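Hi R.,

As promised on Friday, here is the backbone we talked about, encoded as structure tokens. Could you run it through your design pipeline when you get a chance and send me back a sequence?
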């Protein structure tokens, strides 16, 4: 079944370095009005560690907006910088299953 997904934002980012040890990261994302999905991710979005991010089964990262409240309570600094490609509301582990397909603009995304 193909469902439509309404986004609360769309974010991409370039490679940056964490304060302190300078570890490369792609977690600092900026809002964009549009992005093109490819098999490896959103065009213009960089993943620092391709073992865990990017590629056909991890091309786009989603994070439920409902979880940000708890994240901010535990780690305010990380939550301010941590943006994922597709934040949404009402789309979390209680409503989404592996294999579900969603229409986002012209792209079809499958949950993996």
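Update: got your reply. Pasting your designed sequence below so it's all in one thread:
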């Amino acid at each position: 079944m193909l469902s439509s997904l309404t986004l609360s934002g769309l974010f991409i980012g370039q490679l940056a370095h964490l304060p302190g040890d300078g570890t490369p990261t792609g977690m600092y994302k900026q809002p964009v009005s549009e992005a093109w999905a490819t098999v490896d991710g959103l065009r213009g979005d960089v993943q620092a560690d391709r073992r865990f991010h990017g590629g056909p089964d991890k091309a786009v990262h989603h994070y439920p907006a409902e979880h940000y409240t708890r994240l901010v309570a535990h780690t305010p600094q990380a939550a301010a910088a941590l943006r994922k490609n597709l934040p949404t509301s009402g789309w979390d582990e209680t409503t989404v299953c592996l294999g579900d397909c969603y229409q986002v603009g012209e792209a079809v995304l499958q949950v993996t």
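One thing I noticed while checking it: The mean pLDDT is 84.

Thanks again,
M.
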